[in-house]
Design brief:
Number of helices: 11
CATH topology of the largest domain: Rossmann fold
CATH superfamily of the largest domain: P-loop containing nucleotide triphosphate hydrolases
Distance between the termini: 34 Å
CATH class of the largest domain: Alpha Beta
Strand content: 25-35%
Largest sheet: 6 strands, mixed
Oligomer: single chain
Structural class: alpha/beta
Number of strands: 14
CATH architecture of the largest domain: 3-Layer(aba) Sandwich
Length: about 300
């Protein structure tokens, strides 16, 4: 196993328990998603992996070597894209990417080729050679390139798609997948559950400083296989219809009404939705399988209520 968190525990001086006996593994060639609400302990866990914090208990191993025993190990083996924008003031995107590549030990020719490849794939040509202020999305892409130009054995990406437009985001996910396919262990910190479902091999849901669930998206969704979702688009300026209580709990996000439906109640759910559509209350509806978003909510919502 390339990366291993073994019983990692971290409590801060103010008494806050950030990580509580966290154990996870990430293998070479794998994109591993780390999901959880703010305060779940994701950033603290990453900081310990990178040698910025020391765990109170447990071990963090890279290729079997202990990060705590060898503080320089993380700098040699990891590349990191932080959530904050890359500090590239006074530099063009290409210059920033190439400088980081040389610092990480790449030859001038190899770094130049790789930087050019990333700039082309991610469509950064318009800002690549001009030291001008960049939009949030362009800054995020530049930060990713700085982490990927000479990637470490472990690549840590903290919210890499924030502010990135849909077309470049698709290309970015391709680059992330390519890093894993080339043998890196990619640790992806994200709040975007829908994107994570399409792109990660395995994931862990953190909450209350602990690992609430981990596994492949398919395995985690299997626990909700007996339930479906009825999704309805409610017409603007009309009252939101109330589903029959027998259909299960309902949530409203904007004008999107979502109702959890047991398999035995699907016919009743469709009949109700069709009647609402015929009456003009909803524009369209669909019955879909449980998603990773449902899994995430099923674990995180009870955790928040308990706290």
């Amino acid at each position: 196993m390339l990366l291993e968190f073994d019983g990692v525990t971290k409590r801060f001086r103010n008494g806050v328990l950030a990580n509580d006996d966290v154990s996870l593994t990430v293998d070479a060639g794998e994109v591993f998603g780390l999901l959880g609400p703010n305060g779940a302990g994701k950033t603290t866990l990453v900081s310990q992996l990178l040698g910025l914090l020391v765990p109170d208990a447990g071990r963090i191993l890279i290729d079997g070597a202990d990060v705590v025993a060898d503080p320089g190990l993380a700098r040699r083996r990891c590349s990191f894209q932080p959530q904050a924008a890359a500090p590239v003031a006074g530099l063009s995107a290409r210059q920033a990417i190439e400088i980081v590549g040389r610092i990480r030990g790449g030859t001038k020719a190899a770094v130049r080729r790789r930087a050019a490849e990333l700039v082309e794939i991610l469509d950064l040509a318009e800002v690549a050679d001009r030291p001008v202020p960049m939009s949030g999305g362009m800054a995020r892409l530049t930060g990713f390139c700085m982490a990927a130009v000479v990637p470490g054995r472990v690549v840590v990406l903290d919210e890499p798609t924030n502010d990135v437009d849909p077309l470049r985001r698709r290309a970015l996910w391709g680059c992330i997948r390519a890093l894993a396919d080339d043998g890196a262990a990619v640790l992806l910190v994200t709040h975007n559950v829908l994107e994570a479902e399409r792109c990660v091999d395995r994931l862990a849901i953190l909450g209350g400083s602990r690992v609430l669930a981990d596994g492949t998206p398919a395995a985690l969704k299997a626990n909700l296989a007996a339930a479906l979702r009825l999704e309805c688009s409610v017409e603007p300026e009309l009252p939101v219809p109330t589903p029959p209580a027998a259909l299960g709990p309902a949530t409203l996000v904007g004008r999107r009404l979502v109702v959890r439906v047991e398999l035995s109640d699907v016919a009743d759910a469709v009949a109700w939705a069709k009647a609402q559509q015929d009456g003009g209350a909803i524009a369209e509806f669909a019955v879909v399988p449980a998603s990773l978003e449902d899994v995430y909510a099923s674990w995180v919502a009870p955790q928040r209520l308990a706290s």
